[in-house]
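We both want to read discrete structure tokens more fluently, so let's practise on a single case. Would you supply a protein for us yourself, any chain you care to pick? Would you write everything just below, so we can both look at the same thing?
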Amino acid sequence: VNVRVRYDGVVTDGLIARKDAQGRWTWFGDNWPDRAHQWLPTVDHPSDKATVSWTVRAPAGRTVVANGTWLGTHPIGRSGLSETRWREAHPVPTYVMVIGAGPLERVDLTEPGCMMPRCVPQSVYVLPENREWLPGPFAAAPRIVGLFERLVGPFPYEKLAHVQSATRFGGMENATAIFYASELFPSRRMSEGLIAHETAHQWFGDAVTEREWAHLWLSEGFATYFATLWTKESRGDSAFRAELSTIRQQVLADSVVAKRPVIDTAEKNYLALLNMNSYQKGGYVLYMLHHRLGDSAFFGGLHAYYARYRDGNATSDDLRRELERTSGQVLTTFFDQWLRRPGYATPAIGWAYDAGARTISVIVLQDSSSGSYELPLTVAVRDAAGTERRVEVVVPAQPRAEVVLPGRYDRPVSIVFDPDAFLLARIRLL
């Protein structure tokens, strides 16, 4: 069945039509989460993905950018209008179907060399007064795409445009045409971290889309974590660890995290899902999962997940199953405790030394009212000579657990639990 819908009227949401600071008219789609139906006849839900073709008539002299491949621009007689066509051949969710039109100038981003069999054409569209400082942080964009291709798989689309736009968000991951808040450009507050975050969405959120809004962390948590992976690639391990430490502190201090789970099926105000759970906690859970599985199983699982669900939809359990296949581990408990339960672990931990056997026992108490966690616990033991020895044990998800550390020890002078502050946990000493 083919259906053609013709309609008109004043758009009040979803498409932002306004004058910029210089009095020039601009038009930008801004659909997240379910605002596309305010100006497009769509089933406005992430599970209903579709290809999209655009035919846009705009005042001559305005640049029109949209999803997919540019098919051409031509004048419409003597009307003072021009018609531009774009086509996105891959199915995408409605919230990333957009057009942008305005007095935009295009700056192509050159690549020093392709990191995969094909180059991904990238460009930046900005208002003329911001042209002179480009590429600025966008010089990193080709390397960001190259890194994510190596870690996950080929870039999913035809091109990638970075657009100065009107949006209620700092950045919006529209498929092949990322929109950034206009004010970031004249103030030069654009950052590589934001570019990496929105670029990661092209794989996670756009190509593989959460089937239901409750699984938003599959989009925002991935973008958050992959931005830290770019930090590691570009600035090294110390910057990577510092960024993750900041994320961890934010999660432990947040009131929404304490009260609601990451997979929040009860929340129907979708804008409220743009919270610390979906972003920071979701990203940190991926970091803990990466640490548990190791590079090969973790990225192998993500590669399989992306290949299987590309251009489609997925849930958290779909991700879990792919990671279980590559790692050979059962991850049901991990996913349930970190994603389906509010808060984080709050264990009370103590230890006892057996001088005769030269062994150390670790005693862990967990409040049963908030649930017990299975914890990969690193223990740093320091003896009188100042020698430190680190071991990792798995604390079972029980209200009370006693774990004997492997090996034999001289009498310890100090013992530190989770010395690198890796766990999403507030540890109290017994």
Remarks:
- The helical segments are 141-151, 192-200, 217-235, 237-253, 255-259, 277-309, 316-327, 332-339.
- Residues 161 and 190 are 15 Å apart (CA to CA).
